[in-house]
Amino acid sequence: MRAVASLLIAFFVGGDSGAVRAEGTADYALPPLSSVTAIVERPLFVPQRRGAVVSAPVAPAAVPGLDGRLLGIALRQGRAHALLSTGGTTLTLVPGQKVGGWLFVCADRRAAEFKAPDGRVLRLAIGDRLPPLQ
Predict the structure, then answer these.
(1) What is the separation, in whole angstroms, between the first and last Cα of the chain?
(2) DSSP readout, 15-74?
(3) Which helix (H) or strand (E) holds 76?
(4) Which residues neighbour 104 within 8 Å (Cβ) at sequence distance 6 or greater?
(5) Mean per-residue pLDDT for 60-64?
(6) What is the value of pTM for the model shown?
(7) CATH number given to 68-130
(8) Would you kindly state where each structural domain of the chain is located, as residue ranges?
């Protein structure tokens, strides 16, 4: 108990040598202040510590010649979103959004429905490709 008290006093009060020797403990040297400047400059529990929030870009309204793969379905705020991989990028579609001429209608846990401008409905299972419109 004395060793803990000695360490706490040395930590909060400081000392000339920067090292504390308590009974039954090894020497402990406090790190130099220059090594903790990031903590002082960016306190842990201050809201401004985080950078500015940047919103994700919205998927394009229509991508001609799209050939994407349905990666999965995500539930956000009670709505199903389709995750579609297209040419190295991933689009997150909300119902009512168009991509490649296809209208994303709805989704359940295993599939998403897309509607073509001519009224055709295509149900894609996860892993299936969304064909380009002809």
Answers:
(1) 80
(2) -SSSEE--TT---EEPPPGGGGHHHHHS-TT-GGGSPPP-PPPPPPS--TT--EEEEEEE
(3) strand 68-76
(4) 82, 93, 94, 95, 96, 97, 98, 112, 113, 114
(5) 44
(6) 0.50
(7) 2.30.30.830
(8) 2-46, 68-130
